[in-house]
Amino acid sequence: NLSGGTLSLTDLTAHIAIATDGTGPFHQPGGTLNVPGIMVDHRNATGTAALSITGGTSTIGARGLRVSDSTAAVIGGTASVTSSSIAIGEFVNSSLAISGSANVNVSGAVTLGTAAAISGDLTITSTGTISFGSLRVGRGTATITGANVTSTGVSIIGTNRLDEVPGMTAG
């Protein structure tokens, strides 16, 4: 739990790893988080991870936010999150919900479904301001309801267009 104060990682190759091989949550109802990256169960599909950022300010650097194996990832409440990128779905079908009045600014891509036959689902209902460099849907669903979302582009990648976005898989 980060409910006050500041948590900073200064090693640019480091990240917060949640439930790498086991079970674990990370909750941020307040305070300030400054990290190069957050990986929500990044090693394999055997962990059970939960991410909840519902308040405070989070700055996620060049390593971005990766939701590899979780259906319990939420950015909500009054959170203010800035990230270089977000990737959802790597080992198993995963999801991220952005709700409440959260403000989220992603300078790069938000990518859904980053591995073969794996979905990444994004649901946005926040009344805050949401901004993406781009939204890339490889496999999965982006659902936006009543939210103020700005993106410089949207890509939907099918089996005949995989060469257009390195690392993307068929949808």
Mean pLDDT: 84
Distance between the termini: 36 Å
Q: Structural class, judged by helices and strands?
A: mainly beta
The helix count comes to: 0
Strand and helix layout:
Blueprint: E1 6-8, E2 16-18, E3 23-28, E4 32-40, E5 48-53, E6 57-67, E7 73-75, E8 80-83, E9 86-88, E10 94-98, E11 103-112, E12 120-124, E13 129-137, E14 142-144, E15 148-151, E16 154-156
Parallel strand pairs: 1-4, 2-4, 3-5, 4-6, 5-7, 6-8, 6-9, 7-10, 8-11, 9-11, 10-12, 11-13, 12-14, 13-15, 13-16
List the main descriptive attributes of the protein structure presented here.
mainly beta, single chain, 171 residues, ten-stranded parallel sheet, disordered C terminus, six-stranded parallel sheet, globular
Structure overview:
- This protein is mainly β.
- It contains no helices and 16 strands.
- Strands 1, 2, 4, 6, 8, 9, 11, 13, 15 and 16 form a 10-stranded parallel β-sheet that branches. A 6-stranded parallel β-sheet has the order 3-5-7-10-12-14, with no helix packed on it.
- It is globular.
- The N and C termini lie far apart (36 Å).
- The model is unreliable at 158-171 (pLDDT under 50).
